[in-house]
Design goal:
The chain is mainly α. Helices cover 56% and strands 4% of the residues. It has eight helices and two strands; from the N terminus they run H-E-H-H-H-H-H-E-H-H.
Length: 215
């Protein structure tokens, strides 16, 4: 289980090449189509994986406390949900259902807030690590596309089947490992998530394609 999936509760159709990736100028020349999972490529990179291991060791106490508390809160929410479903099945017009529903929503909000506070210590460095790797993703994608003569990348979920050789994810990982062997796990004192992207100069691709945000 990746760090992202473990801490997602603490807080994240067609996927064409991201807007920051310009289509090659010679797009009219026969080029291939490949799939790629950019989120998986980031998490599979050596820089990200090694940094996360450092964070897991440095913040083991906080992560264990978070995981323990999350199990308790999950169990409490599940009990409320089970009771609500049973009562709704027995009597759909039960006047207490609305009260139960409100209680569940309030419990969910409180749990999310509590877990968010518990995850701040390790969540911030994880976000910083991811942002550093993602900052090198554009160049890695472009390089992988050029080497494989790929003109279009689509999400694996957008197609029914694909030959193994047409998945560019591994190629993107290799490019990341070459250009970014390691990253820092200590955010600057004034760093905020998204700061790097916000400060980056906009890129105007020759053939932009929209891309959904997967996190």
């Amino acid at each position: 289980m990746t760090m992202k999936s473990k801490f997602l509760a603490a807080g994240a159709a067609l996927m064409m090449v991201p807007a920051f990736v310009a289509m090659p100028a010679a797009a009219q020349v026969a080029q291939g189509v490949a799939t790629a999972n950019f989120d998986r490529a980031v998490e599979a990179s050596a820089a990200y994986g090694n940094a996360v291991k450092q964070i897991e060791l440095a913040y083991k106490t906080q992560i264990d406390a978070f995981s323990s508390r999350k199990k308790v809160l999950d169990a409490e929410l599940n009990a409320l949900a089970v009771k609500y479903q049973a009562d709704a099945k027995t009597n759909p017009n039960n006047p207490t259902l609305k009260t139960q529903e409100a209680a569940i929503r309030a419990k969910q909000a409180a749990a999310q807030s509590e877990l968010g506070n518990l995850s701040v210590s390790f969540g911030r460095p994880i976000a910083y690590v991811r942002e550093q790797v993602e900052g090198n993703l554009e160049a890695a994608i472009k390089s992988a596309m050029k080497k494989k003569n790929i003109g279009i990348i689509i999400s694996p979920e957008a197609i029914m089947a694909v030959a193994p050789g047409n998945d560019l994810t591994g190629d993107v990982v290799s490019e990341l490992n070459t250009t970014l062997p390691s990253v820092s796990v200590t955010p600057p004192a004034n760093w905020q998530p998204g700061q790097q992207q916000n400060n980056a100069a906009p890129v105007a691709p020759s053939n932009p394609n929209s891309a959904p945000q997967g996190r």
